[in-house]
Amino acid sequence: MRILVTGGAGFIGSHTADRLITLGHDVVVLDALTPPVHRGGRPDYLSAGIDFYQGDVRNRDLMTNLLRRVDAVYHFAAYQDYLPEFSKFSDVNIVSTALLYEIIVAEGLDLARVVVASSQSAMGEGLYWCPADAEQTPGIRPESALAAGQWDIICPVCSGPLELRTTPERISNPQNPYGMSKFGQEMVAINLGRRYGIPTVALRYSIVQGPRQSVYNAYSGACRIFCLSYLLGVPPTLYEDGGAIRDYVNIDDVVDANVVALTDARAAGRVFNVGGGQAVTTREFAEIVRQQYDSDLEAVVTGEYRFGDTRHIVSDIRALGDLGWKPQHTPADSVAAYARWLAGIDSLDGVLAEANARMRALGVVRQSAVLPEAGR
User: Fold this and answer.
1) Catalytically active residues, by annotation
2) How confident is the model at residue 376 (pLDDT cuts 50, 70, 90)?
3) Is 202 exposed, middle or buried (0-12, 13-18, 19+ CB in 10 A)?
4) Which of 36, 92, 116, 125 could bond to 189 as cystine, CB 3.0-4.6 Å?
5) Contact of 244 with 312, CB cutoff 8 Å
6) Which of the four pLDDT bands, split at 50, 70 and 90, describes residue 41?
7) 282, 246 Cβ separation under 8 angstroms
8) Cβ distance 327 to 254 under 8 Å?
9) SS3 labels along the chain
């Protein structure tokens, strides 16, 4: 097949393009190459075997010309950041997806599959269990609680303690602008796909880790932050108390899931979680990175937090598992691969400080009343 990959110069897109070429497909990549992710234009890792176009996924004429020439689409292009640019999240993530389907319908295109990149953030704080009040899907933690260093979520009904559960795809409870835009994107893709007979799959990625994850994007997760810290010889900061739980999924496992979404007829019309299958605290993840760098420096708790972060979220991956997929790599595998890639990048000295300063200036990183000594 001839396959269009939007955002194909990015982290997930470029790895997916590589795999598609290996499988014998012709690949067309569309990418805007916008900073801060892309500072030097077309990245060196992008395969010479692709047909590359630089442009915006909201450009109707460009998208129409590309879609006329392909058999399937991976729609990975997205806006992802902590910036309070609420309209931009919807404009890039939802509008581009609506335009994609609008063109397909207007042109009468017969596409084999459209695979849309969604996010775990569409589930917000996820699913919890209250011994007294059963299932709960809590709302966003109030700023007053975070400022006081009250990190854990309580039952919204009885104010008692909650037990974390893995969150299945039936839960959609986005809390931040990015998550809301990804859920909106899902609804556009799945519902229009069903209505117009366009075989569509939406994949809710957990925290994807591995080589090519941008060192410049302040949004990028724990692997980037912790690896950069240890590479530069400084202890990483753990937000809140270091006890926030996530599941981290390796990029190679994500690409495997992307191939299943393209090829398995049972996937069409559905949303799937793509996660690592293992609950890991940020403190535990930092320790994995510390061991990778054989450092004596332990991660530190400063009482800072990122406004808008979820406390815990772990994806239930059984639905995609029923199609034969399962994660094959551990968080340590992802860290090792990222560390090897990071070692080949020059001029990293100011990157971490620049990102930290930007996050604080925007009010994303804030200080709680918890003192460093009390939080460690």
Assistant:
1) 178
2) very low
3) buried
4) 116
5) yes
6) confident
7) yes
8) no
9) CEEEEECCCCHHHHHHHHHHHHCCCEEEEEECCCCCCCCCCCCCCCCCCCEEEECCCCCHHHHHHHHCCCCEEEECCCCCCCCCCHHHHHHHHHHHHHHHHHHHHHHCCCCCEEEEEEEHHHHCCCCEEECCCEEECCCCCCHHHHHCCCCCCECCCCCCECEECCECCCCCCCCCHHHHHHHHHHHHHHHHHHHHCCCEEEEEECEEECCCCCCCCCCCCHHHHHHHHHHCCCCCEECCCCCCEECEEEHHHHHHHHHHHHHCHHHCCEEEEECCCCCEEHHHHHHHHHHHCCCCCCCEECCEEECCCCCECCECCHHHHCCCCCCCCCHHHHHHHHHHHHCCCCCCCCHHHHHHHHHHHCCCEEECCCCHHHHC
Residue 46 has pLDDT above 90, yes or no: yes
pLDDT tens per residue across span 292-350: 999 999 999 999 999 889 999 999 999 999 999 999 999 999 999 999 999 988 888 88
Name the residue type at position 374: A
In CATH, the number for domain 2-375 is 3.40.50.720
Residues 6+ apart with CB under 8 A from 86: 177
In sequence order, the 6+-apart residues with CB closer than 8 A to the CB of 268 are 113, 193, 199, 200, 201
Distance of CA 195 to the CA centre of its chain: 27
Residue 60 has pLDDT above 90, yes or no: yes
Confidence at 193, pLDDT banded by 50, 70, 90: very high
Domain-by-domain residue ranges, the chain?
2-375
**Distance between the two ends of the chain, CA-based, in angstroms?**
54
Please give the model's pTM, rounded to 2 decimal places: 0.95
Angle at which helix 282-292 crosses helix 222-231, to 10 degrees, equals 40
